[in-house]
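F.,

This is the one I mentioned.
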């Protein structure tokens, strides 16, 4: 098993399957075939290493009970993932405990926005995992959930409803949500996609309920979402044109009102196939609905297009609107600046450099030497990510290129913040292991341990501590990864490193990681890292994948 890291964080994990086939022989004389067929399979025997791992995991579970509520929920979810393959009953029990704790969760930070963010993310993390192994149980809990939690649950249960041909359940719940709270337009979009052309009645129901929900509320904040505009486009052809045009008028009217509250706005949206940037929420929404408006009222579309230079420019380049930029029509990154300085229309340097970094990464496989050269022109933050992407793309096909990229990445480490250094060091260790270079992997591991200690001191500094749950501290996640990487190099060293964890709470999560390694568990997961201090709040979500491909979302929240 290997892990990989990208840009800000990657905490990898995969699933180990303890598979065993039981060969049951039918008795030759008086035993019946039925008796043979129903004989229970033999239980797999644990190796000594797995026994130690199980003991370590049980100890971590006992310690997790004493953690503060948010970290306890995360710990139960992580332990449940280790049990997921070979003890589903235990895994479900732990996830139910995590869910029960969620329902009574009280967070005491003075920052109400942080409390809401933490609670929402905990809900998503637990429910995603719970729904993956016991969707029928999660579905049975839906009616007792508050609207916000029900929305998160709906999102993770959609594949289950689709697989069981029960999208009527999803439609019914969405219609209820549209009355109780605001329609979750992104989920409604997904349901419409799954319904397809064979369910026009349900699509019409969702459209009209969404329009009514949107009209009942004023959307005064500019948040970069065009989900309602996308829903309008998907309903085109299935509802009367005048209803579509009326909905378009509504979204544009509300966008104008939101713009009036900000004298200067800059919205940057990054997609797989390019990026767009607008000086107002109105322009962003107009770009999103323009392809549909051109169908229902071409003259109005031309008139509105003439009034907006930015939309005209991007519409010429991307005639399909958001769908020209990505299959889902949703951006990978969103940057929003609002101010009274009058600089809202300036081109975002970060957006431009992010595009350049993505271009370098696309070159990494077919033109690695060009990618290496072009990465050098980026600022340290983006260059570091680019070099790691190049190494990841080439560790199998060209060890020379991969080692060159790793060397350049290490040269940049002192030029980036400690938290980024830490996460990158862990990936460097992993990639050196994959290259069979244990000497350099060991050196990087030693560097990573020092960085983790420094990062922990920063996050626990009483004058400006990290207010996020310690389970999600960058140093906590880094220590978990270091224990994993160390185990790959030397199991004895991993045990020693576990003892060096800076406090008992960090040690619990490192212990879970070590137990996971010893048991051979390889369950894929979504890992969260969060920093909340005077400098602002940043959250990074990373999904486990192969070393060649990672998916990371980073949100700078304030």
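My design for it:
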């Amino acid at each position: 098993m290997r892990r990989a890291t990208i840009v800000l964080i990657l905490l990898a994990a995969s699933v180990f399957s303890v598979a065993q086939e039981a060969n049951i022989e039918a008795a030759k004389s008086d035993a019946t075939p039925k008796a043979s067929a129903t004989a229970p399979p033999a239980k797999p025997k644990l190796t000594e290493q797995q026994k130690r791992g199980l003991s370590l995991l049980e100890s971590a579970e006992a310690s997790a009970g004493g953690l503060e509520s948010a970290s306890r929920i995360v710990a139960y979810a992580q332990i449940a993932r280790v049990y997921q393959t070979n003890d589903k009953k235990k895994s479900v029990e732990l996830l139910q405990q995590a869910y029960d704790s969620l329902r009574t969760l009280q967070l005491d930070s003075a920052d109400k926005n942080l409390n809401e963010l933490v609670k929402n993310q905990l809900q998503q993390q637990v429910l995603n995992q719970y729904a993956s192994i016991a969707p029928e149980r999660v579905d049975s809990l839906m009616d007792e959930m508050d609207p916000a939690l029900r929305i998160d649950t709906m999102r993770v249960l959609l594949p289950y409803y689709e697989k069981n041909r029960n999208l009527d359940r999803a439609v019914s719940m969405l219609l209820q949500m549209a009355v109780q709270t605001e329609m979750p337009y992104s989920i409604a979009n997904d349901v419409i996609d799954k319904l397809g052309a064979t369910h026009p009645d349900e699509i019409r129901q969702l459209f009209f309920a969404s329009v009514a929900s949107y009209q009942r509320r004023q959307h005064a904040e500019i948040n970069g979402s065009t989900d309602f505009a996308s829903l309008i486009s998907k309903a085109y052809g299935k509802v009367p044109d005048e209803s579509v045009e009326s909905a378009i008028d509504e979204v544009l009217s509300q966008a104008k009102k939101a713009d009036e509250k900000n004298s200067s706005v800059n919205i940057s949206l990054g997609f797989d196939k390019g990026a767009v940037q607008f000086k107002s929420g109105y322009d962003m929404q107009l770009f999103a609905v323009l392809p549909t408006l051109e169908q229902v009222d071409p003259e109005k579309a031309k008139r509105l297009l003439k009034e907006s230079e930015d939309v005209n420019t991007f519409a010429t380049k991307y005639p399909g609107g958001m769908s020209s930029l990505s299959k889902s029509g949703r951006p990978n990154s969103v940057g929003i600046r609002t101010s009274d300085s009058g600089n809202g229309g300036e081109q975002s340097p970060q957006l431009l450099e992010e595009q350049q970094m993505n271009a370098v990464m696309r070159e990494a496989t077919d033109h690695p030497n060009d990618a290496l050269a072009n990465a050098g022109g980026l600022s340290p933050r983006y260059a570091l990510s680019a070099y790691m992407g190049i190494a990841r793309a080439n560790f199998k096909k060209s060890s020379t290129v991969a080692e060159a990229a790793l060397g350049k990445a290490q040269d940049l480490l002192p030029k980036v913040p400690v938290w980024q250094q830490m996460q990158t060091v862990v990936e460097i260790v992993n990639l050196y292991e994959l290259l069979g270079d244990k000497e350099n992997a060991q050196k990087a591991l030693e560097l990573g341990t020092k960085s983790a200690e420094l990062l922990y001191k920063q996050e626990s500094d009483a004058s400006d501590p990290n207010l996020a749950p310690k389970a999600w501290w960058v140093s906590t996640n880094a220590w978990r990864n270091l224990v994993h990487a160390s185990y790959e190099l030397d199991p004895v060293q991993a045990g020693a490193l576990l003892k060096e964890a800076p406090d008992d709470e960090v040690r619990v999560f490192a212990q879970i990681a070590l137990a996971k390694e010893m048991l051979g568990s390889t369950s894929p997961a979504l890992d969260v890292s969060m920093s909340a201090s005077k400098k602002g709040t940043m959250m990074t979500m990373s999904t486990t994948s192969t070393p060649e491909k990672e998916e990371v979302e980073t949100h700078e929240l304030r």
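The longest strand covers residues 264-271.

Talk soon.
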